[in-house]
Automatic annotation (TrEMBL), chain A:
InterPro entries: Spe-39. Keywords: Cytoplasmic vesicle, Endosome, Membrane, Transmembrane, Transmembrane helix. Its main location: cytoplasm. The keyword Kinase does not apply. This is Spermatogenesis-defective protein 39 homolog. It comes from the Eukaryota. It comes from Scleropages formosus (Asian bonytongue). The keyword Metal-binding does not apply. The chain crosses the membrane at residues 104-127. GO terms for cellular component: early endosome; late endosome. GO terms for biological process: intracellular protein transport; vacuolar transport. It is found in: Cytoplasmic vesicle; Early endosome; Late endosome.
UniProtKB/TrEMBL annotation, chain B:
This is Vacuolar protein sorting-associated protein 33A. GO terms for cellular component: autophagosome; clathrin-coated vesicle; early endosome; late endosome membrane; lysosomal membrane. GO terms for biological process: protein transport; vesicle-mediated transport. InterPro entries: Sec-1-like_dom1 (IPR043154), Sec-1-like_dom3a (IPR043127), Sec1-like (IPR001619), Sec1-like_dom2 (IPR027482), Sec1-like_sf (IPR036045), VPS33_dom3b (IPR043155). Belongs to the STXBP/unc-18/SEC1 family.
């Protein structure tokens, strides 16, 4: 943290702000190595500086005149300038200081000085006085050593970095900052907080952190309310250097919004005309804009089911454009068609034909879940029964059949299992005199069956 | 009022008193009547330091919440802003000051930054041209707030995000400062251990600050023997798991904020005799939870499965105590009984409250079929759920399973991951949850957990999860997924070797036969999983970290030991059999279950060490993941 040799002091002389010039006693001060001596000379330094009133801005941050002997800001300032002193060895106690109980006197260590220094100094003259890049960077290093994020950020920002940006010395700056990781991270965080989008993008670019830059720019779309402008913005994002897998997602995001805008305009028109049945029966409650893709697919399965793959709004087109997995597609389409009570559509979702022309029902999500979804959508008993039958695991099948009161399935299964006891138990659960009751009775009376119990 | 703070091994009330003293001093600086304008976030933590009565004694007559526009009228001499150093708050303050009515008698403005003043904020005020309007600009150093007799928190919500995502170490600086204050009050801590980058950083800062203090040693006999600094990213797994202690579950389901929980009111409706059906209260029931309540102190750290038994035992004791009245024959006996009545009645109220809470939790955790209640904790991101409901009035996402079933299934998957079952494949439960549009945070917790337990996911698996999440919840979550990757919660498996099983076996992170009723190991807090962070703490005390060097190397960041010189004459002479006191500081957050596990270790008969816990923030998996999500615009509806 120490400056090895104060060889860049010319600027002090040329600086307009001469609030704290050390010209007269500089050599003497800079030769100070021991903290005690430093402390002793403070009073003298402050007095000297009082005489130089004309060049000095007189009001400090708190509105009080500065320059009293115990002014901590002045002390802090002094320390910073003479930064070849070993700050870590310095102790100063302020007699009127803060105390917890009697045992502890509050001491002000160097980082506090540092902090005070900036409060103080910024009021008088900007840190522009640290003119050369080298000086600025040394100042920054000092701040980093003090570890106080507040100070680091302060040095980074208000003091000189932004001005440097304006002077387009970005390459130089980023080279310097790259070797100062801590300061850089603080500065980036600060720019994020402040919403300094452009500056941040430039910084990332010059640092070669292109992926961060891309994400940052992408993030901006969230603040754009108008969907057409948002779409255009997303389009401009596509070419950004995203990490490989994200690039595809951003492309999809753009495509999705583009489609949604088209669908929305079209459907709004159709709904207003009031000639399409499905819009009359199930009026739209909200726009589809900015919805996730699965929601869009669901919407499409409600309002545009059966359209040919050529139209943007058709489920088939959405499915293939966005590479939606078979499971997701099936679940979404099933929920949508079941909600509309289109049981035929539900059936055809699972129907596959083999090359001989036989049809078979097949489902990648397990028929027990299909049954659950159908039940939630109040499917009639007959439809439920059809799908309960398709459940492969016999235990699951029987418990589902019981749950949804598909009596025939339960009864037939117990019969097949030759489980007389269970059948008797089940008879107790069905309504007396009902067809189920009769059916069970018939089976129990059947002497042909060789019961296992 | 805060007596419970002084019952612990270390009297934390001293810290609270010091904070109160500072506050009084500041208030007295602004002579005359005052109104305080609060940054709302601060009211919770401040409530733990000072109640309104203290403020009133110092002429605080009005309190407002900070918001834009003109300040409410109040006939006071001083307006004091209590704020965090945040730029957006500065803008609001500036607006307040500028729109102040010039016609009326002028009021003095003051500003108190908590916990630190910030140069940037003052610059901002200056830019807005109002800095000159403030008579006092001060800071109120409130780093570590005492939450309970053995618990300190900085309640810095963004600490984990700042440290591990933004790489801004300001909160570590505050941590170091807070630890210095603590040492000023409780003596120098002779031994410092740590694990992780941030821990190293904090220790370095402390040692540096100590050097700068050199020569002015505090003459306080050290209370703490050891400080253990732990990075949260050393143990990313624990907060992801669902906590199964009573307090942990309350936090998971309803969220505990600054020691308070808000509960659905139905179960707390009081039916008084003689009154008919009263209207059900609609306001949430707000309860304070800390060790001042005897019953709560007793049950909060138990596994939830042991809470029922504890409550019924307590019920028997209380009703027996009430029965005593029949035995009171003489005037003296009756008098004694009456004198105990207030205590007994308080105990009965407390019992009633916790029975209700336990019922609420049981509805969610036990496997009965019940209608799924919606509650804020688990259903934080209802975003997409509500969208769909609105969209067509035909929700495609009815909760197919009841809440209790969902809870149980979720737990099963968590436990599979923690024991290393099938962590390298796409998990069908997670897949189903996405298909059902369960809250995104729930999905992220599970996916991150799988990643952590597998030392990263295979490319194919990671890609699959990412695509499903983005398709179902929206592409903008690219940002959140990237954040999770940057913090290491979600990652690509780079080496073929998964070292989690080694860590699990060496540290005994999974105990097959965890005893929930009468625990003999910390793993009871997660019904089998022993939190890694607490296991490290336990092993440090005995037999020492040297025995687990290999595993420590597998975990991120350096581990280290430092010693701080004590002034002559302050060396503690330990009595035979006297326990050591260790302060465990969790950098980046700690869960209630981890706290429970440490309390369990403190109470072990042959443990030899008692723990005081400190942290940057009390967290659970949900609040933690939420802090890492990118701020998204409000949903359009």
């Amino acid at each position: 943290m120490m400056r090895s040799k104060p060889d860049e002091d010319d600027y002090w002389n040329s600086s307009k702000c001469r609030a704290f010039t050390f010209d007269d006693d500089y050599d003497e001060l800079s030769s100070l190595k021991e903290s005690k001596r430093a402390v002793n000379s403070i009073r003298q330094f402050v007095v000297d500086e009082d005489e130089d009133e004309d060049d000095m801005v007189k009001v400090s941050w708190s509105g009080e005149p500065i320059g009293t002997a115990q002014d901590p800001y002045a002390i802090a300032f002094y320390y910073l300038i003479n930064s070849n002193l070993d700050l870590s060895g310095v102790n100063l106690s302020l007699p009127g200081g803060h105390s917890y109980g009697d045992s502890l006197v509050f001491f002000i260590p160097s980082y506090v000085f540092f902090f005070f220094f900036f409060f103080f100094f910024l009021q008088f003259c900007s840190l522009e006085t640290f003119r050369s890049l080298k000086d600025k960077m040394q100042l920054l290093d000092q701040a980093v050593c003090a570890n106080d994020g507040n100070v680091i950020t302060a040095v980074c920002t208000h003091v000189f970095l932004q001005k440097y940006f304006l002077q387009c010395k970005l390459e130089v700056l980023s080279r310097e900052l790259m070797s100062r990781d801590v300061a850089l991270r603080h500065y980036i965080h600060y720019l994020k907080e402040m919403g300094e989008q452009k500056l941040l993008v430039e910084l990332f670019k010059s640092l070669g952190r292109t992926e961060d830059m891309a994400l940052l720019q992408y993030r901006e779309h969230l603040s754009i309310k108008d969907e057409v402008r948002r779409k255009e913005y997303l389009k401009s994002c596509i070419s950004l250097p995203f990490p490989p897998d994200d690039a595809g997602h951003v492309q999809d995001h753009y495509t999705l919004l583009e489609r949604q805008i088209i669908i929305e305009a079209n459907d709004k028109h159709l709904e207003n005309k009031g000639q399409v049945e499905v819009f009359k029966k199930h009026p739209r409650k909200a726009s589809i804009l900015n919805m996730p893709i699965i929601t869009t697919l669901y919407y499409s399965c409600v309002y545009h089911y059966g359209e040919s793959e050529g139209t943007y709004s058709s489920p088939a087109n959405i499915r293939s454009t966005f590479k939606i997995s078979e499971k997701q597609y099936l679940l979404t389409a099933l929920s949508a068609r079941a909600k509309l009570k289109e049981w035929l559509d539900v059936g055809s979702l699972f129907t596959t034909k083999n090359w001989l022309g036989y049809t078979k029902k097949r489902s990648p999500i397990g028929f027990h879940r299909v049954v659950d979804i159908l039940h939630k959508n109040n499917a009639p008993a007959q439809v439920l029964q059809e799908y309960v039958c398709l459940v492969e695991d016999p235990n699951l099948k029987i418990s589902l059949a019981q749950k949804y009161k598909c009596h025939d399935i339960v009864i037939d299964m117990y019969k097949d299992q030759k489980d007389r006891q269970q059948l008797i138990v089940y008879q107790g659960k069905v309504e007396r005199g009902s067809p189920e009751d009769k059916k069970i009775q018939d089976i129990l009376n059947n002497t042909q069956i060789r019961w296992k119990n | 009022m805060a007596a419970h703070l002084s019952y612990g091994r270390v009297n934390l009330n001293i810290l609270r008193e010091a904070a109160r003293k500072d506050l009084r001093e500041f208030l007295d600086k602004c002579a005359g009547s005052k109104a305080i304008v609060w940054d709302e976030y601060l009211t919770g933590p401040f409530g733990l330091i000072a109640q309104y009565s203290l403020l009133k004694e110092h002429e605080v007559e009005k309190m407002f919440t900070l918001k834009g526009g003109r300040l409410p009228a109040a006939e006071v001499k001083n307006i004091i802003f209590f704020v965090r150093p945040r730029l957006e708050l500065m803008d609001i303050i500036a607006e307040n000051v500028i729109s102040e009515d010039k016609m009326r008698s002028p009021r003095d403005f003051h500003i108190l930054f908590v916990p630190r003043r910030s140069l940037l904020c003052e610059q901002r005020l200056k830019e807005r041209g109002v800095l000159g309007s403030f008579i006092n600009v001060d800071e109120y150093i409130l780093d570590l707030i005492p939450y309970d007799g053995d618990l300190l928190s900085m309640e810095s919500e963004g600490a984990f995000r700042e440290c591990y995502l933004e790489n801004d170490q300001t909160s570590l600086y505050h941590t170091a400062k807070g630890l210095m204050t603590l040492q000023a009050l409780y003596g120098t801590i002779p031994q410092i251990f740590g694990k992780g980058e941030c821990a190293r950083h904090v220790a370095n800062m402390m040692l540096r600050m100590k050097r700068e203090f050199a020569g002015c040693q505090t003459q306080v006999l050290p209370v703490f023997d050891t400080l253990l600094l732990l990075d949260r990213n050393v143990d990313l797994l624990t907060p992801l798991a669902t906590q199964l202690t009573y307090e942990g579950l309350i936090d998971e389901i309803y969220g505990i904020n600054n020691g308070y929980v808000k509960l659905p009111p139905e179960k707390f409706a009081q039916k008084k005799q003689g009154e008919g059906e009263k209207d059900l209260p609609t306001e949430p029931k707000k309860l304070q939870l800390n060790s001042a309540e005897e019953l709560y102190a007793e049950i909060r750290d138990k596994n939830f499965n042991a809470v029922g038994a504890a409550l019924s035992k307590k019920a028997k004791i209380i009703s027996a105590a009430f029965e005593e009245r029949h035995n009171a024959k003489t005037v003296g006996e009756i008098k004694q009984f009456v004198s105990q009545l207030p205590h007994m009645q308080a105990a009965r109220t407390s019992l009633a409250n916790h029975t209700s809470i336990a019922e609420l939790i049981k509805d969610i955790t036990s496997r009965q079929k019940i209608p799924p209640p919606l509650h804020p904790g688990l259903y934080l991101t209802l975003l997409h759920f509500s969208i769909i409901v609105v969209l067509c009035c035909i929700s495609c996402v009815p909760p197919y399973v009841s809440a209790s079933e969902a809870f149980f299934d979720n737990l099963t998957v968590e436990q599979e991951f923690m024991t290393g079952v099938d962590t390298d494949k796409v998990n069908t439960y997670i897949e189903d949850c996405i298909a059902q549009k369960d809250p995104l945070i729930k999905i992220l917790r599970l996916v991150c957990m799988q990643s952590v337990c597998n030392n990263g996911l295979k490319q194919k698996v990671l890609d699959y999860y990412k695509r499903e999440i983005l398709q179902t919840y929206g592409y903008e979550h690219i940002l959140t997924l990237n954040n999770l990757e940057k913090t290491g919660l979600l990652k690509l498996q780079t080496s073929t070797r998964n070292n989690y099983p080694t860590i699990r076996k060496t540290l005994k992170l999974w105990m097959e036969d965890a005893n929930e009723q009468n625990p003999n190991d910390i793993s009871y807090v997660y019904s089998g999983y022993a939190p890694l962070s607490v296991r490290l703490t336990q092993l440090l005390a005995r037999p020492g970290w040297r025995s687990i060097e290999e595993v420590l190397k597998m975990l991120p960041g350096p581990h280290f030991e430092e010693r701080q010189q004590l002034p002559a004459g302050l060396h503690k002479k330990r009595q035979q059999g006297e326990n050591r006191t260790t302060l465990v500081f969790f950098l980046g957050g700690v869960t209630y279950a981890e706290i429970a596990a440490l309390r369990f270790l403190s109470q072990m008969e042959d443990g030899g060490t008692e723990y005081v816990i400190a942290t940057t923030k009390l967290i659970n998996g949900t609040t933690w993941i939420k802090s890492l999500m990118d701020r998204l615009e409000e949903p359009p509806f």
